[in-house]
C-alpha cells in the first residue's frame, strides 16, 4: 500500500486483502486508508476520483474483490474559508497532528453571524499555515469542541483528518470508556451542601429565549460532576460564594452554566444564566465587588485537558492556571474585604 500524504494532490493505491470485514468499496477504503474520513472517502467516490482496475467507480456500495487494485486521486486541499488572520495565541503544545491552546476571554471559536472575522479559526489558519493538511479536503483546523466567547482555557484542535476522527470519537465518549478528561474551575454563588456531587439533567433550547439553553424534559442527556474546592465569606462573615472543580461527562452547549444555575448556584458574572443573582454582589466586600465588576464575564475556566494522542496513542495531560482576572477575583474573595 503506497504511503503518501492524504491531502497533497497525489495518487493513492491500495490492494484489497479480503480481510477488511466488508466488500463494500467505502468500507474497505475506510479500513485501508484510515487517515481519510468516511465522509471524505464517500465524496471522493461520488466525484469519480476512485478507479478499480482502471474503471471509474462512483458507487460507495460497489462490491470489491480480493486482489482488486483501487486507485484514489486525492486533490490538493483547497484553500480555507475564512482566511487566516494574525491573532496572538497562547499555544501550550503543537505537533503535526494537533494544536493545544489556552484560549483567552473574548475570542469566538468559529466564524458565525456577527463574528465573521477575528475568530480562533482565523487565528489558527494563519498560525498553522502549510502544516494544515486538510479536514474533509479543506485546509482548515478541525474544531472538535468549543468554549464560549468569554470562557477561558484549554482547547485541542485537529490539523488533519486522522486527528479529527480520533478526537471526535474521544469527545463523543467523554471519558466513559477512555482516558479523555475535561476539567473546569467555576466560581459560583452560594455554597453546596456537600463536598461533591453530580448534576444529571437533560438540556435543550430554552422554550422562549432561543439563544439560551435550559434544563428541559426530553432534552439531550447532560451530566456534570463537581467537587467543592474553596468557600468564600461575604463582608458579614457568612458564606457567599464557592470555587468548584467540574468535569464533563457530556458536552452540551453552555452545559456547566445551565447545570449550576439549575442547581441554584449560577456562575459569578454570568449575565445570561445568573442575572437574578445580581443582588448577591451586595454581600461582597468592596474589593470582591470591584473584582467581579472588572471581570465582566462568567467566572469559568477550562483548566484541565487529558487526551489520547490520535497517532501515537500516548496519554497527554495539560493544566492551565487561572487567568489574571480570575486570580484577582479569587484573591479578593479570599480577603473578604
Summarize the structure in words:
It is a single chain. This protein is of the alpha+beta class and 337 residues long. The chain is 20% helix and 26% strand. It has 7 helices and 16 strands. The protein has helices at residues 25-32, 38-46, 120-128, 161-173, 255-262, 286-295, 324-335, and strands at 11-15, 50-52, 55-56, 69-73, 91-94, 98-103, 142-143, 152-158, 181-189, 196-200, 203-205, 213-215, 223-233, 239-248, 300-308, 315-319. Strands 5, 6, 7, 8, 9, 10, 13, 14, 15 and 16 form a 10-stranded mixed β-sheet that branches. Strands 1-4-2-3 form a 4-stranded antiparallel β-sheet. A two-stranded antiparallel sheet has the order 11-12. α1 (25-32) crosses α2 and α6 (286-295) runs antiparallel to α7. The longest helix is centred in the middle third of the chain and has 13 residues, at 161-173. Residues 1-8 have low confidence and may be disordered.
Highlighted features:
7 helices; about 25% strand; alpha+beta; about 20% helix; disordered N terminus; four-stranded antiparallel sheet; about 325 residues
Quick recap:
Helices cover 20% and strands 26% of the residues.
List the SSEs and their pairings:
Layout: E1 11-15, H1 25-32, H2 38-46, E2 50-52, E3 55-56, E4 69-73, E5 91-94, E6 98-103, H3 120-128, E7 142-143, E8 152-158, H4 161-173, E9 181-189, E10 196-200, E11 203-205, E12 213-215, E13 223-233, E14 239-248, H5 255-262, H6 286-295, E15 300-308, E16 315-319, H7 324-335
Parallel strand pairs: 8-15
Antiparallel strand pairs: 1-4, 2-3, 2-4, 5-6, 6-8, 7-8, 9-14, 9-15, 10-13, 11-12, 13-14, 15-16
Helix pairs in contact: 1-2, 6-7
Amino acid at each position: 500500500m503506497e504511503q503518501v500524504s492524504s491531502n497533497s494532490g497525489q495518487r493513492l493505491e491500495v490492494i484489497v486483502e479480503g480481510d477488511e470485514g466488508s466488500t463494500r468499496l467505502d468500507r474497505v477504503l475506510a479500513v485501508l486508508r484510515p487517515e481519510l474520513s468516511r465522509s471524505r472517502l464517500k465524496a471522493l467516490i461520488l466525484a469519480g476520483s476512485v478507479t478499480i482496475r482502471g474503471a471509474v467507480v462512483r458507487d460507495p456500495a460497489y462490491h470489491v474483490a480480493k486482489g482488486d487494485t483501487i486507485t484514489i486521486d486525492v486533490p490538493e486541499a483547497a484553500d480555507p474559508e475564512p482566511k487566516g488572520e494574525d491573532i496572538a495565541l497562547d499555544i501550550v503544545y503543537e505537533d503535526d497532528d494537533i494544536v493545544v491552546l489556552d484560549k483567552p476571554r473574548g475570542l469566538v471559536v468559529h466564524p458565525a453571524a456577527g463574528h465573521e472575522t477575528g475568530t480562533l479559526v482565523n487565528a489558527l489558519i494563519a498560525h498553522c499555515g502549510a502544516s494544515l493538511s486538510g479536514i474533509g479536503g479543506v485546509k482548515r483546523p478541525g474544531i472538535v469542541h468549543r468554549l464560549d466567547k468569554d470562557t477561558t482555557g484549554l482547547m485541542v484542535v485537529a490539523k488533519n483528518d486522522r486527528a479529527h476522527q480520533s478526537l471526535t470519537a474521544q469527545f463523543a465518549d467523554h471519558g466513559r470508556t477512555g482516558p479523555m478528561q475535561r476539567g473546569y474551575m467555576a466560581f459560583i454563588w452560594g455554597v453546596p451542601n456537600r463536598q461533591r456531587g453530580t448534576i444529571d439533567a437533560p438540556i435543550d433550547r430554552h422554550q422562549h429565549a432561543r439563544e439560551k439553553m435550559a434544563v428541559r424534559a426530553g432534552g439531550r442527556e447532560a451530566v456534570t460532576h463537581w467537587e467543592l474546592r474553596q468557600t468564600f465569606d461575604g463582608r458579614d462573615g457568612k458564606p457567599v460564594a464557592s470555587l468548584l472543580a467540574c468535569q464533563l461527562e457530556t458536552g452540551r452547549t453552555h452545559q456547566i452554566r445551565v447545570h449550576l444555575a439549575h442547581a441554584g448556584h449560577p456562575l459569578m458574572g454570568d449575565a445570561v444564566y445568573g442575572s437574578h443573582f445580581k443582588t448577591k454582589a451586595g454581600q461582597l466586600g468592596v474589593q470582591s465587588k470591584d473584582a467581579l465588576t472588572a471581570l465582566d464575564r462568567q467566572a469559568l475556566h477550562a483548566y484541565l485537558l487529558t487526551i489520547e494522542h490520535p497517532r501515537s496513542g500516548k496519554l497527554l495531560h495539560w493544566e492551565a492556571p487561572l487567568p489574571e482576572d480570575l486570580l484577582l477575583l479569587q484573591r479578593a474573595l479570599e480577603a473578604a474585604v
